[in-house]
Structure formats: C-alpha cells, structure tokens
Task: structure prediction
Amino acid sequence: MDTPTSAKSSANTRDQLLAHAEKLIRTRGCNGFSYRDLAEHVGVKTSSIHYYFPGKDDLLYEAVEAYSARALAALRAIDQSLPARAQLEAYLSLMESRACDSGELCLGGMLAAEVMTLPDRVRGALQGFFRAHEAWLARVLAEGKAQGTLKFNGTAESAGRAVFATVQGCMLVSRLFQQPPAFCEAIGALYVPCKD
Result:
C-alpha cells in the first residue's frame, strides 16, 4: 500500500484529493469519475486514495462535508445587521460569483441530481446542506417581510425553499446555455421587493 511518509504530506495529499474530487464532482458528477481519474489529477497511486478514503462513499461524504462547511461559513459572513433585502442581494451575489466557475456547478446541486445512487450517509449530509441554505433564506425573507422590504406568497420556509431551488435551477440552465446565471431576475419573479 502506498502510504504517506509524514503528517504534513499526509494532510496535503488528503486536501489535494478532496479538492480535486470536488472539482470532478462539480464538473462530471459523482458517477462521472473513478479513483483512477482522481489519481491522475493528483499524481498519486489509487492505493493512496484508498488509504485516505477506503471507498468512494467515504470520499463523497467528506467532499460534501468540506464543501458545506465552506458554504455555510460564507453565509455566516453575510452581515446580519444589514436590512434583509441587502442580505438577500449579498447572498445572490455570493452565489453568482461562485456559480458555474470553469463549467462547475454547485456540488450540492450536482449530487442532488444523482441522489438515487448516493448512500444514506452522503444523502443525509447533502440534505443538511440544502436545509441550511433554505433556513438561512427563510430567516432573511421573514425579516424582509417584517421590515416591509420583501413580499412573497406562503410561508417564509416555503419561500426559502423556492429561492434556493431557483438558484440551483439557474445554475443548471446557465451551464446548459453557457451564459451567466440570472439569479436576480429569476428571484424577482418569485418575490416582489417593495420600494425603499
């Protein structure tokens, strides 16, 4: 077995494997690459990948967890003292800046399309990723409604789900037509911002 020689190289190799796995998932989906593909991208033997991630399910789970942690940190970095409408615009700007970068989709959206092939543990982590975004959006939308700056039909929770689903759908359509995603335009069709 090809094993790491030091803790530092071990961490670097593991991080490289995760980073390249995320890229492959975001461009090809989880069923569109093998450990051999990943080994070629990172420049290691496939046995090295098995050392860090014994099975592909382990790799997928760790990739979802790492991606989710970064995405949720970015959400938490949006200033909650801003008016709700400004928070929503910051969120859409954040998503737009990371959308379809180099032909990549949101890891969550890409894996959601393959949900029937995912193991339960990965599916659960993916659902957590979606729920966290939806809950954040529901909070912002509820604040906006209370402030009189955002209007939507139904509950804030259902509107949050609709906004996140629209963002994910816009990324798919953007990739299909090789055009920038039109998040603000699409979200504007779902909620009606009040005049300031």
Summary: DSSP finds nine helices and two strands in the chain. Residues 120-147 form the longest helix (28 residues). The domain at 7-193 is CATH 1.10.357.10 (Tetracycline Repressor; domain 2).
